Amino acid sequence: MKKEANNAINCSTQTWPIRVYYEDTDHGGVVYYANYLKFMERARSEFLRTAGLELDQIEQDYGVMFAVRQANVSYHAPARFNEKLLIHSSLVDMRGARIAFKQQIYRDDDHTLLTEGDIHLACINRDGNVSRIPANIINTLHDYLTNNEESAS
Amino acid sequence: MKKEANNAINCSTQTWPIRVYYEDTDHGGVVYYANYLKFMERARSEFLRTAGLELDQIEQDYGVMFAVRQANVSYHAPARFNEKLLIHSSLVDMRGARIAFKQQIYRDDDHTLLTEGDIHLACINRDGNVSRIPANIINTLHDYLTNNEESAS
Amino acid sequence: MKKEANNAINCSTQTWPIRVYYEDTDHGGVVYYANYLKFMERARSEFLRTAGLELDQIEQDYGVMFAVRQANVSYHAPARFNEKLLIHSSLVDMRGARIAFKQQIYRDDDHTLLTEGDIHLACINRDGNVSRIPANIINTLHDYLTNNEESAS
Amino acid sequence: MKKEANNAINCSTQTWPIRVYYEDTDHGGVVYYANYLKFMERARSEFLRTAGLELDQIEQDYGVMFAVRQANVSYHAPARFNEKLLIHSSLVDMRGARIAFKQQIYRDDDHTLLTEGDIHLACINRDGNVSRIPANIINTLHDYLTNNEESAS
Q1: Domain limits of chain D?
Q2: What is the interface pTM, i.e. ipTM, of the complex?
Q3: Run of H or E residues at A14
Q4: What is the CATH number of domain D2-152?
Q5: Residue of chain D whose Cα is closest to the Cα of B26
Q6: Which residues of B touch D79 (CB under 8 A)?
Q7: Which of C51, D13, D33, D134 has the most CB atoms around it within 10 Å of its CB?
Q8: Is A93 a catalytic site residue?
Q9: Which residues touch A82 (CB under 8 Å, ≥6 apart)?
């Protein structure tokens, strides 16, 4: 069972497009370093939506949210105004109250890798305390990852 | 000719979808008031892209940008986390160095009007001085608006 | 009584300094147009703090917040990276559920007027419904404005 | 000489206060995770200003900027609306084209450590290429760090 889940997790990369607007850039002519974290968070939300999970619904149904605990971001090359970017997101870990994503941001034009992030999140309840990820959420994600694995093989 | 252009301008509404992410909300549980201006600016950029104008290309080719001179925004009802919004954008004026948009933000679910904006922009050159909109840009926009008018009638 | 309050309101300008950081600028080399609304909101929060009102305390004690209903902003000249700005904020109206500020943003260096805003807010309760401003808040503001008037004359 | 510089670097912590405004929070009621990176960047700018370095002047005089290459951020506890925070910033490395800061964000009220960041930057020139930090900048920083060390001992 554990092996299955790990296998599933290995092949769960999803791609989400982002356009760079004025709001994202700074006077250096490139995307401001904190804004890549916004892009990554959008892509994680869309990853979960594709898997069948809506974050507002999760809050209402289970009283939990996902809070970032650690973000390690490497900036290799800058994104510029009006460029189209592709965010690759992979769910790389999920157990107990923890979930982790590996994310890469590419320029669409020439597929240059611009930014990479390792983002670790914790499931927290309404009081802000760490809380096991509800079983239904885990199952939905495992089903999604397993189905993706099958269709990929 | 002037009448044609005005007619064209009257029927140039374009719709652009926006998803509300965490980054857009504030601790009141709704979209932060300044962030609707970001949404409107994204939709204006997409309006121009659809008309055949890329803002980075315009900067390179003509050395001009569009700077907001006046923004009048009415907030009727709040947008909430994870909602899908639709931004309606109409080009309502264009002459000399000036261009103006009327924009409405609707909740997609129930088509409630949330926010309205009148946004006036000026064409400025690299020194920041007001500069007539290049004739090619005017023509591209007129062609786009006229074609839309024809296909709408 | 009404006259007194109006007099008091006429002389209630407060100044708050802001530094322009990278996050505030865009690739045009100037402050992004939506970010001036952030600056104005910071200055309104500080206006209220100086008058003795803490917005988080108001939420806890009275269950109300202030939501922007109308923002009319004129952009005269751009603020640039690393400049120090001064935000002038005046409380120009306060009755029922409504409160309004007039705000100007100046460059500190040469006192150039960069941006002006008329910001109208409504007091709303936890359900998002319009609600009369609590009497204690009105009184605190009137006392503050009256004292400022006296010390100014 | 190398030892001196290292000693100096060890005792160069500077504190910068930040107030949490609406713009910084998200609908979870806490500061949005990307916004702590804005706070850290403001504090780094103020660190350099105190040392005698203005980033806009450096751009003009030397044609260089500092771009973030790696940001590792740990989130221990959330900051909330209207809280006052203190950002501690230490310059921990500086050689060739590289400069690195260690930064901690504390809640002012109870001195709880909320967030920690290791931020590595590279000096880049106008073409975006890595470039040695100009000797004058290195010297200004070394002088500042050495003086701080002396006054601290």
Answers
A1: 2-152
A2: 0.91
A3: strand A14-19
A4: 3.10.129.10
A5: D26
A6: none
A7: D33
A8: no
A9: A19, A20, A21, B45, B54, B55, B56
